[in-house]
Description:
By secondary structure, this protein is an alpha/beta fold. The longest helix is centred in the first third of the chain and has 29 residues, at 2-30. The chain has helices spanning 2-30, 75-82, 111-129, 145-156, 191-205, 241-255, 267-285, 302-319, 333-354, 387-412, 420-444, 453-471, 473-476, 479-504, 508-525, and strands spanning 36-42, 45-51, 58-64, 87-91, 103-104, 134-143, 162-166, 181-186, 214-215, 224-229, 365-368, 371-374, 529-530. Strands 1-2-4-3-6-7-8-10-9 form a 9-stranded mixed β-sheet, sandwiched between helices. Strands 5-13 form a two-stranded parallel ribbon.
Amino acid sequence: MMRRFALPLRIVVAIVALAALAVALWQLHGMTDGLRVTAGKVGDTPVTIYQPPSDAPAPVVVIAHGFAGSQQLMQPFAATLARNGYIAVTFDFTGHGRNPVPIRGDIDEPTNVTGVLVAETGRVVDFARTLPGSDGRVAVLGHSMASDIVVQYGVSHPEVSATVAVSVFTRKETESLPHNLLVIVGALEPQMLIDEGLRIVNKSTGGGAVAGRSYGDFKNGSARRLALSSGVEHIGVLYSQDSMREALQWMNESFGRTGSGWIDRRPGALGLLFFGLIALAWPLSKLLPRAAPVPMGASLSWKQLLVAAIAPAVLTPLILWKAPTDFLIILLGDYLTLHFLLYGALTGALLLLLRPRTAGAQPAVHHEAGLEKLESLPDPDHPRVSWPALAVAAAAVIAYNILAFGLPLDTYVFSFLPIAPRLHLIAAIACGTVPYFLTAEWMAHGANAPRGGYAFAKFCFLVSLAAAVALNLHKLFFLIIIVPAILLLFLAFGLISNWSYKATNHPLPGALANAAIFAWAIAVTFPMVIR
């Protein structure tokens, strides 16, 4: 009965998924309707210019992304401002996104790097002010790391009419500079960022400032405000309608302008997009070739799984606590590579010690001419595996993960297509992700694998990363940023991996696909640094 409905259900899911993708892409494309969007460069710095359809002179707003980000993350602010009559310019900082120039210096000593980023912002501002349609007036907006950059730029350039600092941390502001400073913080961000926003506003007001209230005078540049965007955290603040509304209103007040009031509303479209991509993977997985006659994997008991999952989670951060991790040009990519590699090696060693069996069908005994003989069924310990089928399945899942997800990510979320200096980094990081995912996927699968074991094993890995940060907070602090991202990747690509396993009876395609997407994402996301 279930098989009778399986094919129609897969067809329905495929149709729903394709419809969701079509609607999502239509909505996302519509966010820039009527705008003139062009890409260019200021020296080596990639820039994107969002111009309103009107040729009437307008102020320019230069928008800067945060640490490990890229200009795509700032699209909601750019689209909102441009569709309200401003010229918005986004760019990739040195070492980030598609900027081919690495950061030079010790990232742990911000003063060694900040000056370079402030100067780069200045070059983009100078370029933006010369754009056709610019009326010569300028504002700057920056998120997280860039909040400090734009504040410093605004302090040293009093001609900047307004500054918006999102998820702020800075000590460079003064009582009067930068002019017309708006601080936006997500209501779910750490309290220290909210306190930092209040401190900045109180510095100009003399104390007693509260969130949601404006102080000072826009005409003389003394305006100050802390705005809290409801229900969002450090990344969600970039997509919040509260954030868009506050930034637009602040620009209008600073420049004495009015706009259409249009606000970017892409979170729903992005959610629909990724729902469609994940859902479509289920019916597509049924097209993968079967590679083994029985489900392959360690098929551990819960007791064995607890040992194999917990021991590497405890030992890996302890062993790597003092290990040198400065062998790759990408910040933190070297540590993550070692963490994946050692975790995988420890897991593999434990699997060998536990002597797991590949669970499968037991050989049947027949009596023929009075003699016993084993039926020619798959040997449960040495089943026949089709390596060509495995290769086809692995290639298909890898292509789906990287292309189907990567192209929309690169267009609407963050830089995902690697530039030449990052290509070898993908291969280097894969030296760690491949051993980890091969052993992790094998450990959690098999005919008798415990229910919930896969999720538990991934949870242990996240705990091990958190322990590594706790042991070396100064060096690995920025890993805090990606732990939530790794969780989301585990959830999305874990589903796809499990569907490919059910279709092929082998964990290898899912393991290689996960290893590829993780190595790729790390290599293209974190900044390139030459120490």
